[in-house]
């Protein structure tokens, strides 16, 4: 294959967003971008009750507006108008409202298939080419870049390789990039459910002694459920009939949205906080879940990855040095270090605080929720974190 300036390994939401963020600048500079992805994107969007979704913060909307993509995404983006945070069985609760924060929505819930379709259609094939379905089986550092070997034994040389192949990246391990891992001893059960009452743009974060639960609004009055439980109990919930599962969900969540009438396919994922010990090397960047995988309950993971993606694109396009220059890549890493530390810390602390049934700690967090609802400065800080605006204003 002909050499390219930039190879993005992983053409999912993060990889495709990076290609889009670089597209205009790459065209002006004569860069060729190659996306390598094992799963071929569909030719058209297909609605599905069971579609997986992502929570996009208000800050992420701003990024996609800058990239000229938000108008397309918004056609199937369900706005989050209010977030209700509560602790089961206790009186403390906090309510965040878009109107109080002066924004049209605190965030949005978008099906991954729709977001991917919008991204893929926005890419200019004269600048961004695809190898799909294809996988990189080997990466070799060489003078001025990397040589990638694909699963059909073809090879391609690039000046900069971006590793965006997910949290279980085998290439990260192959390159000897270590990880820091803190298991939560929980699994996330993810499914779509339908309540009997209209959700009206409400999102719910409900904390229990067994683990937190999130319910996010989707189009067609569906809700995306993220229910974290101890691993053994999550496995038990997976094995229940739909009726028995909905009964337990009803008991855990209550009747704020009436009775749950339908549940789709359930998926189960073990949870850990995983951080790559290196995110940049000469001619190499680790991005997305390969760089940091967060607990899903706070909805921060994809939004942080997108902020990383925009910062990387801006740094590369502003640099006058050769693509892959280590000082340039380290500049990107330094620019995002505070955002990453604060966001990872916020997500981790919220998860651990609200997954602990110790009575004194439970009483303290209950008072904290009550105080959060009564103290405007604290409430605004929490809202800005939830909206992805805590460390950066675009």
UniProtKB/TrEMBL annotation:
Residues 5-334 form the FAD-binding domain. Pfam families: FAD_binding_3. The keyword Oxidoreductase applies. Signal peptide: none annotated. One of its GO terms (biological process) is ubiquinone biosynthetic process. Keywords: FAD, Flavoprotein, Monooxygenase, Oxidoreductase. GO terms for molecular function: 2-octaprenyl-6-methoxyphenol hydroxylase activity; FAD binding. InterPro entries: FAD-bd (IPR002938), FAD/NAD-bd_sf (IPR036188), UbiH (IPR011295), UbiH/COQ6 (IPR010971), UbiH/COQ6_monooxygenase (IPR051205). SUPFAM superfamilies: FAD/NAD(P)-binding domain (SSF51905). The keyword Acyltransferase does not apply. Its cofactor is FAD. Pathway: Cofactor biosynthesis; ubiquinone biosynthesis. PANTHER family: 2-OCTAPRENYL-6-METHOXYPHENOL HYDROXYLASE, UBIQUINONE BIOSYNTHESIS MONOOXYGENASE COQ6, MITOCHONDRIAL. Belongs to the UbiH/COQ6 family. This is 2-octaprenyl-6-methoxyphenol hydroxylase.
């Amino acid at each position: 294959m002909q050499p390219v300036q930039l190879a993005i390994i992983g053409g999912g939401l993060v990889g495709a967003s990076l290609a889009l963020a670089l597209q205009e600048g790459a065209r002006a500079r004569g860069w060729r971008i190659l996306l390598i992805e094992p799963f071929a994107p569909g030719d058209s969007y297909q609605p599905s009750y069971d579609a997986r979704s992502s929570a996009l913060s208000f800050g992420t909307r701003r990024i996609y507006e800058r990239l000229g993509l938000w108008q397309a995404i918004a056609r199937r983006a369900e706005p989050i108008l209010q977030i209700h945070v509560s602790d089961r069985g206790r009186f403390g609760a906090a309510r965040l409202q878009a109107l109080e924060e002066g924004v049209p929505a605190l965030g949005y819930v978008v099906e991954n298939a729709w977001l991917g379709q919008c991204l893929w259609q926005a890419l200019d094939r004269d600048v961004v080419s695809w190898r799909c379905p294809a996988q990189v089986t080997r990466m070799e550092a060489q003078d001025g870049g990397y040589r990638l070997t694909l699963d059909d034994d073809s090879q391609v040389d690039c000046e900069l390789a971006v590793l965006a192949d997910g949290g279980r990246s085998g290439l990260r391990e192959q390159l000897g990039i270590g990880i820091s891992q803190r298991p939560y001893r929980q699994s996330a059960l993810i499914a779509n459910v339908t309540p009997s009452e209209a959700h009206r743009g409400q999102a719910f974060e409900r904390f229990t002694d067994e683990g937190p639960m999130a319910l996010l609004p989707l189009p067609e009055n569906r809700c995306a459920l993220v229910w974290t439980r101890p691993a053994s109990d999550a496995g038990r919930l997976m094995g229940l009939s739909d009726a028995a599962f909905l009964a337990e969900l009803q008991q855990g969540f209550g009747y704020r949205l009436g009775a749950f009438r339908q549940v789709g396919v359930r998926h189960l994922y073990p949870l850990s906080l995983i951080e790559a010990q290196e995110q940049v090397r000469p001619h190499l960047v680790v991005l997305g879940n390969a760089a940091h995988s967060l607990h899903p309950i706070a909805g921060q993971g994809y939004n942080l990855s997108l902020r990383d993606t925009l910062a990387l694109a801006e740094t590369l396009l502003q640099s006058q040095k050769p693509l892959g220059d280590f000082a340039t890549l380290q500049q990107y890493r330094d620019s995002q270090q505070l955002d990453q530390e604060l966001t990872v810390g916020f997500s981790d602390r919220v998860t651990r605080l609200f997954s602990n049934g110790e009575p004194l700690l439970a009483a303290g967090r209950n008072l904290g929720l009550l105080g959060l609802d009564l103290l405007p400065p604290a409430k605004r800080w929490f809202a800005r974190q939830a909206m992805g605006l805590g460390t950066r204003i675009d």
